[in-house]
């Protein structure tokens, strides 16, 4: 029998599964160790960053923001640029949409949610029916193993654990449609797009695969399946063939120990777990291991009352309460503040997300090169649009690595967008009035810029690599080279190194 302390630690370690030695992609939803984040929201749910100096975050309204209920129009600043700038590429990472819990609360009935899709159920979407029938032709697409055996639609009248719900599908149909409109006038993808121009990758979970497909359908309705290849990422970090990094795992373990130490000092939280366990008639550690916040969030997001158990003879019985829920959420928000202060998670995040960022940077460079004046385009084109369908344990470290530590924890169907822009060519010579040189005018290729958006809001100037850029001077956008030098070298200063390899394999000191 392991001690309670050891049992908790063990639970953390096995349930995170960020250590990619086995191809498991399980997220530990909405628990402090996976969260970067959001000291909060203050009053405004639209803002990605909390308003400074506002009052204490309200854990309940913050939780509603996490649900991301698709019942209002959303602001989307994607596709905005100075006139005449050309959009060269867009790379998107999404978190899957609303899903059924991954854990159930002992002794209680699981929330009753129907995971089949139907336009007669809310929330619905004008594209829902055509999406369902289009998915029925999915066998025409190309699927990297093992994706071909993953269902392409949620379809259980009683949701399975972790299954995408109709809400989740609608969230991503909306995301895709939003970006469709944002980029329409930029002609990002030609109508006869080639297989290479559209790059789609997902983890092997049905909720990420289905979320990616819903997004894609909103973005390119009735897309040609035969041109689509869906690629598989076995690690939730999207680290491809560069997953091996011993130092990353050490930072994660240290971060988990910090999280554990921080949690046990919270007497209100401990008392809340004891009360909840008594209500249910289970051991406190049994309840804790069942990660009740995950299931309670699902109740909240679906407007279901919290679970109850009948009165028993040992003092058990009654319902779990909103007040208890608020205590757990409050502690999670406090944990985020402590996490930022200690900086361990940031170090983990830098190493965790380098492979993804490096690939993102490389794709941008390739597209930029292909756009150079006078260049013969490669047959089949470049990856002008890429979609990575991921988890909170992917999006949270990505935000942290970019220096967006104040950003709110990735809600359901969160999206991070990287845009690559090119300014118009400049004709030199006419401007210079010097005799002799001014006669022959020479055209200088435009310059390259990057924009980063989180949930539709432009956060470029909050990132580490562009925070100090003076956007009011000559350049209204952030130069791509800032991002490239950040990814290729500068980001490793956080872990006192100059390269991924050095940081990963240095002996612990
Ligand atoms: C959308 O749903 C949320 C959560 O159920 C609710 O708080 C909010 O008032 C709703 N907004 C609108 C515009 O209906
Ligand atoms: C969902 O499952 C039912 C029963 O297994 C089946 O008849 C139906 O065709 C499925 N629908 C879709 C869209 O896959
Ligand atoms: C980073 O990208 C470059 C290509 O630009 C590649 O040569 C290198 O192997 C990548 N490094 C890692 C660790 O993935
Ligand atoms: C950073 O790395 C350098 C060289 O590897 C080492 O000399 C120095 O002590 C390190 N600094 C810290 C704070 O770890």
Task: Name some characteristics of this structure.
single chain; 509 residues; nine-stranded mixed beta sheet; 14 helices; binds 2-acetamido-2-deoxy-beta-D-glucopyranose; Histidine_acid_phosphatase; phosphatase activity; His_PPase_superfam; hydrolase
Outline the biggest β-sheet. Answer: 9 strands, mixed
- The arrangement of helices and strands along the chain is HHEHEHEHEHHHHEEHHEHEEEEEEHH
**Count of runs of 4 or more consecutive helical residues:** 14
> Percent helix among the residues?
25-40%
Radius of gyration, in Å, reads 24 Å
Which CATH-level-2 architecture of one domain? 3-Layer(aba) Sandwich
- Please tell me the overall pLDDT: 87
CATH topology grouping of one domain: Rossmann fold
Identify low-pLDDT runs: 1-46, 434-438
Kindly state the number of beta strands. 13
């Amino acid at each position: 029998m392991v001690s309670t302390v050891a049992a908790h630690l063990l639970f953390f370690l096995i349930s995170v599964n960020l250590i990619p030695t086995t191809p498991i992609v399980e997220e530990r939803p909405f628990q402090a160790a996976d969260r970067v984040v959001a000291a909060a929201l203050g009053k405004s749910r639209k803002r990605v960053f909390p308003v400074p100096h506002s009052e204490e975050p309200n854990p309940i309204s913050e939780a509603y923001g996490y649900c991301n209920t698709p019942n209002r129009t959303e602001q989307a600043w994607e596709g905005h640029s100075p006139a005449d700038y050309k959009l060269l590429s867009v790379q998107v990472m999404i978190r899957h949409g609303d899903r059924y819990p991954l854990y159930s609360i002992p002794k209680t009935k699981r929330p009753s949610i129907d995971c089949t899709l139907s336009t007669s159920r809310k929330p619905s979407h004008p594209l829902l029916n055509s999406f369902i029938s289009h998915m029925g032709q999915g066998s025409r697409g190309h699927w990297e193993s093992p994706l071909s055996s993953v269902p392409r639609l949620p379809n259980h009248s009683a949701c399975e654990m972790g299954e995408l719900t109709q809400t989740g599908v609608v969230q991503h149909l909306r995301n895709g449609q939003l970006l469709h409109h944002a980029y329409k006038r930029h002609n990002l993808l030609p109508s006869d797009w080639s297989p290479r121009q559209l790059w789609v990758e997902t983890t092997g979970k049905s909720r990420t695969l289905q979320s990616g497909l819903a997004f894609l359908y909103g973005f390119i309705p009735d897309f040609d399946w035969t041109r689509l290849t869906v690629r598989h990422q076995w690690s939730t970090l999207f680290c491809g063939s560069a997953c091996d990094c011993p130092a990353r795992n050490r930072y994660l373990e240290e971060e988990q120990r910090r999280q554990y130490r921080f949690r046990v000092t919270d007497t209100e939280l401990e008392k809340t777990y004891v009360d909840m366990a008594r209500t249910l008639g289970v051991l406190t550690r049994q309840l804790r291991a069942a990660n009740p916040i995950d299931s309670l969030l699902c109740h909240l997001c679906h407007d279901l009352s919290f679970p109850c158990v009948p009165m028993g003879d040992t003092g058990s019985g009654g319902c779990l309460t909103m007040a208890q829920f608020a205590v757990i959420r409050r502690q999670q928000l406090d944990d985020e503040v402590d996490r930022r202060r200690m900086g361990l998670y940031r170090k983990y995040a830098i190493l965790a997300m380098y492979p993804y960022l490096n690939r993102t940077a490389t794709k941008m460079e390739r597209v930029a090169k292909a756009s150079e004046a006078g260049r013969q385009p490669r047959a089949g084109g470049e990856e002008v649009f890429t979609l990575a369908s991921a988890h909170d344990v992917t999006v949270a470290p990505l935000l942290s690595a970019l220096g967006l530590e104040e950003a709110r924890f990735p809600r359901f169907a969160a999206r991070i967008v990287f845009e690559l822009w090119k300014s118009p060519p400049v004709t030199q010579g006419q401007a210079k009035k010097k005799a002799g040189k001014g006669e022959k005018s020479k055209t200088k290729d435009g310059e390259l810029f990057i924009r980063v958006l989180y949930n539709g809001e432009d956060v470029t100037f909050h990132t580490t690599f562009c925070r100090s850029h003076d956007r009011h001077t000559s350049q209204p956008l952030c130069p791509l080279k800032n991002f490239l030098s950040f990814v290729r070298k500068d980001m490793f200063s956080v872990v006192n190194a100059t390269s991924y390899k050095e940081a990963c394999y240095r002996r612990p000191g």
